[in-house]
């Protein structure tokens, strides 16, 4: 099987899905520009700020991508390339894309509030509280794990630390130029991208060498500032510029793939059970994660993206389109290792890790582009830096989203009675960062990492649950969210049962208890949603 055939088929399928299934979703959700978005009705210059579609797509895509669609498909390839490929195509088109698009629209229709607000309105107050606790705890785990990943990268590759710091200053200048000086977006983008690659060059010339602990401290300080600073100054422009970084990586990899013309030598299907992963169901669907669907996307979409959406129709390209682009990245990640036979692939994966495996494969593709003359070692460093840049993007976005969840948990209906925990973003962010720092320095966060996959997919299941209840309340046919929701609950609950059993056998009672609590939470919310759906009357649904 040719890698070119696989990437072309994926691109064609995603284009067709965007046009036809995207139109279907837009009709079902009654997307129209007649509805004014919260970025205008609730503009505050900090969190609620309208953004042009290319800028918001860059911010949203950079936030949701991270290292997930790169690492997940490569690890899951232990089951063989066919299950991963098929799941990415189906998942991104009919589950992940629906999840992301509908989450943004639902949030826009509810004043830019999170999925937790929707759960409160249509399922109940207790459900909202449980969801926000779960979301905040999951995001604290993301903060801790990604802080360690980024600090390790900056320590191992000092040039990436220098480049990343320069990126931040560049982003501030870009934000001020576009939003305050009203400069042309495209001219500013051309200059900004040129300066972006200049930052990479300067990083290679002047690498900053610090210990891991110092990098952790610097990163914790940065995410605090990123969370309290208006999105248009730092977060939005940095993510937008960084998206070109990933676009370059993807385009370079795809173009190089056509010159390399790799044949797929990985086994189509191996065993239905793999050491360290478990059985194909549910391990495949939890491991691939962001490449097909991710609960983190719903938190991003309803947390930051919905507050910056200029028009409702922009949600299709940002939400649904962003998920399909991530699907292409997942396929490219899979093909980066597909030319290896199964034995050499597993050896590389187990000794060097998924990021190195991806970087090596993509570097080989880019090296074979004749008119660029890119050296393999430079391409490897570029790919590794791109992955670390997006891990950093996920880190600062997760911090802001955790602050939102924290503040929303303490909200009361009477605005005059709001506590400082709600009104003061510095206090909410400080508490969030302190918990993240405690987990980071505890040395336990990476031990909890296997649980994150299940927790992330549970967020997706709960988001789909909330969306289903909301759509049923509108008296619409909700099967397009109900079916994915049932599937994701089956995946998540099975994964948690497996996780509980495996950790009990290892006498790791702490992880087993955490997994059990997540299981109970999911069952409670599912039962509450079932009661609401039954009350609305499934037989009385009006199909529109």
Plain-language structure description:
The protein has one domain (3-540): Amino acid/polyamine transporter I (Up-down Bundle). It is built from 22 helices and 2 strands. Strand 1 (273-274) and strand 2 (278-279) form a beta hairpin. It is 75% helix and 1% strand. Strands 1-2 form a two-stranded antiparallel sheet. With 544 residues, the protein is an all-alpha fold. The relative contact order is 0.17.
Which series of helices and strands comes N to C?
Answer: HHHHHHHHHHHEEHHHHHHHHHHH
Count the beta strands.
2
- CATH superfamily name? Amino acid/polyamine transporter I
User: In the residues, how many domains can be counted?
Assistant: 1
In the CATH scheme, what's the topology name?
Amino acid/polyamine transporter I
Quaternary structure state of the chains depicted: single chain
Which structural class do you get from the secondary structure elements?
A: mainly alpha
Strand content: under 5%
Mean pLDDT: 86
Assign a percent range to the helix content. Answer: over 70%
The CATH architecture would be Up-down Bundle
Question: What is the first-to-last residue Cα distance?
Answer: 43 Å
Low-pLDDT residue spans: 539-544
Number of helices: 22
Q: At the first level of CATH, what is the class?
A: Mainly Alpha
Q: Spatial order of the strands in the main sheet?
A: 1-2
Question: Which sheet architecture does the biggest sheet show?
Answer: 2 strands, antiparallel
Q: What is the radius of gyration?
A: 22 Å
